[in-house]
Design a protein that fits this description.
471 residues, alpha+beta, eight-stranded antiparallel beta sheet, 15 helices, 10% strand, transmembrane, PepSY-associated TM helix domain-containing protein, PepSY-ass_TM, membrane, transmembrane helix
């Protein structure tokens, strides 16, 4: 069957002026190419993301013998727990300490041993070392690096993942436009799929694709934008915007106004894996001193600030460094607190003063929205939210797979089967404006379009058979 006949059949149902039909066909063409090119990577991201979603349960099962201890009467001093690790690893550099946050949970001392990041699990009741776990050997570290592209592509892989997420946002928006019922009044085919699979109708796959995408669209957008907050290009732009406008941090830098100390331009994310809203919090410097305070003093200060158990203490690594204490609810299991319990503190290593104290109440509106989005992305609102995100991920895979099936069933033999290109000057000007706006909002999309246009101009247009095959 001729591809143009298929297109005419689809667009004739719109009963719209020619210009609107051209717009429809143009958006369909962009939607088609983006789907074909990025659907495989989107499916891959959905699968790895689904695995990482259950990180608490999986790690709890895999490393149960390291995470849990026999409950006893009284825990030994924090200093003694760390000293036991120093005795066993005299050449290692202690980088952080996570106190036992449940009666049956081990304490965790993190260190660098010959350049390797190692977690040492300590029985808080007697100081015995239960075992060690190298960060590179963590299964979830492997899954995370697969998910963000670092493992299989390094920086290029990370940028490719970001590009796929950006185009996925465009796919959802363009898909909603294509789905929009216009003059259609029936709920079947719009919000309820027409079940004609047994009759061999392609309409079944179209409805599963479109209706599923419609119902999940807002949640997919949230999932994509929240995931982009970690990306190298768009995420850094968003972070800088939030930091510059004060939309995600305390206006006027109130947490630091009452303390006189040398200013710092080092963001907290450079020294600790803190919650997103605290990543650009400037790290202050400790006052002049000789003898650092004890770790017990730090723990006492944190308790007085009512920080939820499960926090991590990052040790100062220089004479002017500070103790950085943060609570990320994503790291607490099974009794995970709400995202609003996030805290980040910087404590003077010599006199114990709190130099910065950032919590939920200090977040700007945008900071709170992003924080909730990230928590939604990772299923941090309990097991039910994990199941919901799992269903969302399955829906994304279903949308991508049905899109491929639609293309495969519709494409003419011997051709790629792309929707025909529309030659309309006014339309092209409008498309150019949209493309420019998307390129500004998503810089990697702009770069990818430049690459595609160059490929089309330099290669595809100059090879007639290839041009005819692509359409």
């Amino acid at each position: 069957m001729n591809i143009n006949t298929n297109m005419q059949t689809a667009t004739s149902k719109l009963k719209q002026p020619a210009t609107q039909k051209n717009i429809y066909m143009t958006i369909w063409r962009w939607h088609f190419y983006a789907g074909i090119l990025f659907a495989p990577l989107i499916i891959f991201l959905a699968i790895t993301g689904a695995v990482y979603l259950f990180k608490p349960q999986l790690e709890n099962y895999m490393y149960h013998n390291l995470f849990y201890v026999q409950e006893n009467e009284e825990k030994i001093a924090t200093t003694d727990q760390i000293l036991e690790v120093k005795k066993q690893y005299p050449n290692a550099v202690i980088t952080s300490f996570t106190p036992s946050f449940e009666a049956d949970r081990s304490a965790v001392v993190e260190m660098k041993d010959y350049g390797e990041n190692v977690s040492v699990y300590v029985n808080p009741y007697n100081g015995d070392i239960i075992g060690t776990l190298y960060e590179k050997d963590r299964f979830m570290a492997f899954v995370n690096d697969m998910h963000n592209g670092e493992l299989w592509g390094g920086t290029f892989g990370n940028r490719l993942v970001e590009l796929a997420a950006c185009w996925a946002v465009i796919l959802v928006i363009s898909g909603i436009y294509l789905w929009w019922p216009r003059h259609k009044k029936s709920i079947f085919g719009t919000i309820i799929p027409r079940i004609r699979f047994l009759k061999g109708k392609r309409m079944f796959w179209r409805d599963i694709h479109a209706v599923t995408a419609f119902w999940l669209s807002i949640f997919i957008i949230i999932q994509l934008i929240s995931g982009l907050m970690w990306s190298g290009v768009w995420g850094n732009m968003a972070n800088k915007f939030v930091a510059k406008t004060g939309a995600g941090s305390p206006a006027g830098m109130e947490p630091w106004e009452s303390h006189a100390f040398p200013e710092s331009t080092i963001p907290t994310k450079d020294i600790a894996d803190v919650p997103w809203a605290a990543e650009n919090l400037p790290v202050p410097k400790s006052s002049d001193g000789v003898t650092p305070i004890s770790i017990e003093k730090v723990v006492e200060t944190v308790k007085n600030e009512h920080v939820h158990p499960g926090y991590k203490i990052v040790f100062p690594q220089s004479k002017t460094g500070v103790y950085t204490v943060f609570l990320d609810p994503a790291n607490v299991y099974p009794n995970r607190p709400l995202p609003s319990s996030q805290r980040t503190l910087h404590i003077d290593q010599y006199n114990g003063d709190i130099l910065a104290n950032l919590g939920w109440k200090d977040y700007g509106t945008l900071g709170k929205i992003v924080t909730l989005g990230i928590a939604f992305h990772q299923g941090e609102f309990g097991f039910i939210s994990q199941l919901f995100i799992l269903a969302l991920v399955i829906g994304i895979i279903l949308i991508a797979v049905t899109g491929f099936i639609m293309w495969w069933k519709r494409r003419p033999r011997g051709k790629f089967g792309a929707p025909p290109k529309q030659e309309h000057r006014k339309l092209l000007k409008g498309v150019a404006v949209i493309v420019l706006a998307l390129s500004i909002f998503f810089p990697l999309v702009g770069l990818s379009l430049i690459f595609v246009f160059a490929l089309d101009w330099l290669i595809i247009k100059r090879i007639p058979k290839l041009k005819q095959w692509i359409g």
